[in-house]
Structure formats: structure tokens, C-alpha cells
Write a structure and sequence with these properties.
- The chain is of the alpha+beta class.
- It has one domain: Methanol Dehydrogenase, Chain A (8 Propeller), CATH 2.140.10.
- The protein has 11 helices and 37 strands.
- α4 crosses α7 and α6 runs antiparallel to α7.
- The longest helix has 14 residues.
């Protein structure tokens, strides 16, 4: 899903003006250096503009030189750097860190210089009391094992939501969704710092270095930790780390869960009983852009680890057809398959049936498989697949399809890139029945029988596109399912037409961004509230280079719900609360209207787009990250800001 498929370049290439739109004029007429040559030949197509989660050039310029070398020689970019010599790698690292991008706007260049290492070490907590849980905790990404994102004990009333005001802000690089237990808040980021903060004040309790992660920390009571509280995060790479939640001291680190060089962890590992269940995804779709790459061989998987040791108990691949040579591409490279079906989202536990549910991404090749774009029920104890239901066959896609031509490794025929990026939700219905709910980037929402995987109903909530549809998640209270719909590509095409960037006759499906409430038993739409058109102020982002003044109201982030109120953000940086019964907007806050002086010492920190895993509701407060560079590469900042709201800001 999003690391590969969230590509605004996909649209630009389709309409034939990507290179012209993002051409970077040379700063001077001097001959290019060796590092610049390596950059242009091997790196620029994925980083300038950035593809999905790949950092753009401004973000790379803010990183230490050695971090770039490590990524290319032994880290996540090792596969992409195959064929480069040590001198090439050294030269491109020098080139990236010696000067900011020539055409970067001033705001972007300034933001890029605010590397995480430059964030002042201020705002430390005076004391760190023992972790004391409460009824209002939010201790995992989906709050409960059913992935409902429903907080039944929020610590504030629905009537108080209109009085929410900012209490504190915290600057961090690439922040995700926080978890909260008592007065402890835990949040990871992609540049390697794992934080424990004071939930009420934002003061820093501890920081773990070198824990680069895209996942939401899960916090549980456990005897494996000296304090009795343990937290688990995925990464770096395909490892999982267990830490004492009170001190940040590492308890264990798992072995690599996948040897494929393009594998990574994006879905949050889930603890249940004495095991932790870890989904594995990849960026092999990006590697497929090279004609010499033998596309493709990655298979999505779910691994169960022993909670005490971090050692694997079982591993289940979701593609069970054998890998075999297929055809040679136009460059003469032998292709292979099937491949893909990455698991981008967190698993969902069904203790009654003894299964764990996962949803899979698209296929990378044109070799047939039934494992992509599918829902799986996997036995918790053994890893055996109980059932699988594929909802979209032949959804074959990789980034080579974005290359004009298309590229040598693009599947034939190409699919729509409608994979799943949202965790399934298991919800109880009247009479004791249950339904499994899944939202897809196609704009379709499904209700399935959790015993058999049979599709009970299907409802369209949006037009759908490679950038959503339902992108990151849904939420459900005791009566309703809430699906946020992005429809970013239709929005982008409409904006490009209006700006005269593409011919007026270019086909553009209608955009339907917004929030929809459905009856989980039947799929009937109860209400739909379109995402409002509103002002935004992107800073540190290249979106306005090609569409000045345009904000995108795509509703791609996962929503969260409490009794009577749904919280949901949009890509233009607006954070809103909706009446759960009617869809009426009862509160709104623009995270880009102002800058923030953060509790950890950053002055004038900008906000940005809201994307990704969405808000956390706990202890009378609501937390939301602004500026996350997510699937559309729009509205993101090198440094994000975690915003904490409380009633009247108290």
C-alpha cells in the first residue's frame, strides 16, 4: 500500500508532465560532480519528488552524512544501491549533505535544517512516577484487539468537545500515532527516537536512540519487564524491540523476521496472550523501477513471536503459490512471481474464534495469485490459514508503471492499485453476531462473515484511487462504522485542470472526500459529510511549487471515536469533530493556521497535513500529529508537531 502506492508522481506521469513540473534548474553551469551524477542516474526519480514514504531531497540534506552511507550500504536502501561502488555511495552522500536543493523554496530549506539532532534537549520531566493505568487509556493503535478505535471512557463529554483548545505541542521528526497509559505517552518516529512523554504536559520522560520505527507503540502489563510494563515497536528493519515502558531500557530484540532486502514493518505489532503478532510489508515495488531488477519476489507475511524472548514461533506467508520465472522484460531481465500482498496494517484479534485477521496489499507482478487484495483469518496458535477472501483479483502494480513507456517491469495488464492499508475491524451486532469490516482504497467498504470470510455486503463510500478511497483506517462505536474517504487523485486532477496544467478534456472522476457513517449489519449509509473546502497554509512542502495556493481536502487519516463524537483530520491540516449520530461538524481546528512554540524548545514550528494513523483520545485529552509526510506527499514537513488538546486548554 502506501510506501509504494502513495505516489503523486503516478498521476503526473499518467498525464505526461511529471518531469517538466518538477524539473530542478541547476544552480550554476559548472560540470556536475560525481555525486550529482549518481543522484540523477540512480536516486532522483524516487526522491525528487519523493515517492510515498521516501524522504525528499530537503529531508535527506538534513540527515547526517553517515546515516545516508549506512542506508545505502547496509540499511533499507541496500537493494536500491546494488551496483554502486563505495566511492559512488560516498560521493552521493557528500553531494546530498553539502548544500540544500537548488530549487527548494525558502520555507522548505529552513525546515530541512531543523534536523531532529538540532531539537533542543529541554522540557525534561521533573519526576517520572510509576505507570498507573486508568479506564481512559489508549494502549495500542486500534485501542482494543478488535481495532475499533473506539474510546468508551474518554475523560471528557461530548458537550465539552466544542471547548477543546491546544494545551501543548511537541516537535519530532516523522511522528506517528501516540499511545497513552495513565500520565505516560509513547510515540515513535522514523528518524530513530522513541519518546516517552508526560501525557498532561508533554515533558520528556525518556528517549531511546536508534529505534527508527513506523509503528505505534503497544503498551501492556508484562512480567518480562522489571517495572511490570512493557512496550513494543517494529523496526529498525524487520526486527521488533521490547522495552521497559518505565525506563526505556531494551528487554529484547527479535531476529530479522524477513530476509528479503526490500522488507520493512509498517503495521503495528499486536500483543495477545504470550505472543506478539507482526505483519511484514515491503518497498519492492520501488525497486521494480530499475529495468535490471528481477521483479519480483517479496511475499507478505505474519509472524508470531514469543513474548518473553522475541523468538519466532510460526510464520505464515499470504502468497502460497510457488515463486517461478515468468518472462523476460524489454531489457532482457528475467522476471518472476507471484509477489506482493504486503501487510501494511495492524492485525486484528478474534479471541473467541482463535484467529487473527489481516488485510493484504496488491500484487507486484502479472503472475496470478489469490493472496493480494484479500482478507485472511489465521489460527492464533498454529499460523494455519482458516480462510481467505480475495476482493480484487488481478490488481497487479509496481512503480515501473509510473515510468513513461511504461517501464520494463510493469505488469501486463496493469491493475488499479486498490490494495488494503486499513486494519480490519471486528464488531459485535445485536443478537450476539459479529461482522468483520474492511475498507479498501477502491472506495469500497466490505462486511464479512468472520466464520467463513463470505462477503455479506459491499458499499461504496468514494470514487477510490491509488491514493484512497479508504486509505489508513476506519473506526466503529457500538452502533456505527465510520469510514474516512480520501479520493486524492480525483481531487488532484480537478485542481490541475483548474490551473490549466492539464487539458480540460483529461478524464477526471468525481472526488468525494469526506466521512461516511454506515450500519455495520447491512452496509447502509446513515450519513455522509463532505470534507469542507477551507484555507490551509502548507510550509516546508513542495506542493505549492506546482499548484500555488491549492489545499487538498482528502480525508485519508484514520478517524477515532468516543461516545457521541468522531474525530477526523484532512490533508489540508484541518482537525474536526463530528456528531456521531448526524455527521454535523461540532468543532474544527486548523493545524496550519499558526506556528507553535513547542515544549521541547522549537520556536515557530509549523503544522501541516493530517495523514496516517489518526488521533488518540485518552484521559480527557485528544492528540493529533500534524505535518506527517504520508501517502500523497502533500502537506508534509521534515519535522512534525504532536498537538495535545484539552477542554479550555487546561
Amino acid at each position: 500500500m502506501t510506501f509504494e502506492t502513495a505516489r503523486v508522481r503516478q498521476v503526473f506521469a499518467t498525464v505526461g508532465f511529471a518531469l517538466a513540473m518538477f524539473a530542478v534548474a541547476p544552480a550554476r553551469a559548472d560540470p556536475p560532480t560525481r555525486g550529482q551524477q549518481v543522484w540523477v542516474q540512480h536516486c532522483q526519480s524516487c526522491h525528487e519528488p519523493a515517492v510515498g514514504y521516501t524522504p525528499d531531497r530537503a529531508a535527506l540534506a538534513a540527515r547526517p552524512r553517515q546515516a545516508i552511507v549506512d542506508a545505502l550500504t547496509s540499511g533499507s536502501m541496500k537493494e536500491m544501491a546494488s551496483g554502486l561502488s563505495a566511492d559512488d555511495i560516498s560521493a552521493v552522500a557528500d553531494y546530498l549533505t553539502s548544500a540544500p536543493p537548488a530549487a527548494a523554496p525558502k520555507a522548505a530549506a529552513a525546515a530541512a535544517r531543523v534536523a531532529e539532532d538540532a531539537i533542543p534537549a529541554v522540557g525534561l520531566c521533573v519526576t517520572n512516577p510509576p505507570i498507573r493505568p486508568g479506564s481512559s487509556d489508549w494502549a495500542s493503535q486500534g485501542l482494543d484487539e478488535s481495532s475499533s478505535r473506539y474510546q468508551p471512557h474518554p475523560g471528557l463529554r461530548g458537550a465539552d468537545v466544542s471547548r477543546l483548545k491546544l494545551k501543548w505541542a511537541f516537535a519530532l521528526s516523522g511522528g506517528g500515532q501516540p499511545t497513552v497509559v495513565g500520565d505516560w505517552l509513547f510515540i515513535t518516529n522514523r528518524d530513530g527516537r522513541f519518546y516517552a512523554l508526560g501525557a498532561r504536559t508533554g515533558c520528556t520522560r525518556w528517549v531511546v536512540e536508534g529505534a527508527s520505527s513506523r509503528t505505534t507503540p503497544m503498551v501492556v502489563r508484562s512480567s518480562i519487564s522489571p517495572s511490570g510494563w512493557a512496550t513494543f515497536v517494529g523496526g529498525p528493519g524487520t526486527t521488533v524491540g521490547a522495552y521497559d515502558a518505565q525506563t526505556g531500557k531494551q528487554i529484547w530484540r527479535s531476529p530479522k523476521l524477513e530476509t528479503h532486502l526490500a522488507a520493512l514493518l509498517t503495521g503495528t505489532p499486536i500483543v495477545w496472550g504470550e505472543r506478539i503478532y507482526v505483519p511484514v510489508s515491503s518497498f519492492e515495488e520501488v525497486a521494480a523501477a530499475r529495468p535490471t531488477y528481477p521483479c519480483c519476489s517479496f511475499r507478505g507475511s505474519l509472524t508470531a513471536l514469543d513474548l518473553k524472548t522475541g523468538q519466532p514461533v510460526w510464520k505464515t506467508y499470504v502468497i502460497d503459490e510457488p515463486l517461478a520465472p515468468s518472462r523476460k522484460n524489454s531489457a532482457g531481465t528475467q522476471m518472476q512471481g507471484p509477489a506482493g500482498a504486503a501487510i501494511w496494517s495492524a492485525p486484528t484479534i478474534d479471541a473467541k474464534r482463535g484467529v487473527v485477521y489481516v488485510a493484504t496489499g496488491d500484487s507486484y507482478t502479472d503472475v496470478e495469485t489469490t493472496g493480494d487484495d484479500a482478507l485472511f483469518a489465521i489460527d492464533l496458535a498454529t499460523g494455519k490459514v482458516r480462510w481467505k477472501t480475495q476482493v480484487t483479483a488481478g490488481d497487479n502494480y509496481n512503480i515501473a508503471c509510473d515510468i513513461p513507456g511504461p517501464g520494463a517491469n510493469c505488469p501486463r495488464p496493469k491493475g488499479s492499485d486498490f490494495d488494503f492499508g486499513a486494519p480490519p475491524i471486528l464488531l459485535g451486532l445485536p443478537g450476539g453476531r459479529r461482522v468483520l469490516l474492511a475498507g479498501q482504497k477502491s472506495g469500497l467498504v466490505y462486511g464479512l462473515d468472520p466464520d467463513t470470510g463470505k462477503i455479506l455486503w459491499t458499499t461504496r463510500v468514494g470514487t477510490g484511487s491509488a491514493l484512497g478511497g479508504v486509505e489508513w483506517g476506519m473506526a466503529a462505536d457500538e452502533r456505527r462504522l465510520f469510514a474516512a474517504n480520501a479520493d486524492f487523485v480525483p481531487l488532484l486532477l480537478a485542481a490541475l485542470k483548474a490551473a490549466g496544467k492539464i487539458p480540460p478534456a483529461t478524464p477526471a472522476p468525481p472526488a468525494r472526500p469526506g466521512l461516511t457513517a454506515l450500519d455495520p449489519a447491512t452496509g447502509r449509509i446513515l450519513w455522509q459529510t463532505p470534507a469542507p473546502e477551507a484555507d490551509c497554509h502548507y510550509r516546508g512542502d513542495r506542493s505549492h511549487d506546482f499548484l500555488p495556493g491549492v489545499c487538498f481536502r482528502a480525508q485519508s487519516a484514520a478517524p477515532s471515536v468516543m461516545p457521541g463524537v468522531v474525530f477526523s483530520g484532512t490533508l489540508d491540516g484541518w482537525f474536526r469533530a463530528y456528531d456521531a449520530a448526524t455527521g454535523k461538524i461540532v468543532w474544527a481546528f486548523s493545524t496550519t493556521a499558526d506556528t507553535y512554540d513547542t515544549v521541547n524548545g522549537v520556536k515557530d514550528q509549523p503544522g501541516g497535513g493530517i495523514d496516517g494513523m489518526g488521533p488518540t483520545i485518552a484521559g480527557g485529552m485528544v492528540y493529533q500529529v500534524s505535518g506527517f509526510k504520508g501517502s500523497s506527499n502533500t502537506g508534509g514537513n521534515p519535522i512534525n508537531v504532536l498537538l495535545a488538546f484539552s477542554v479550555d486548554g487546561k
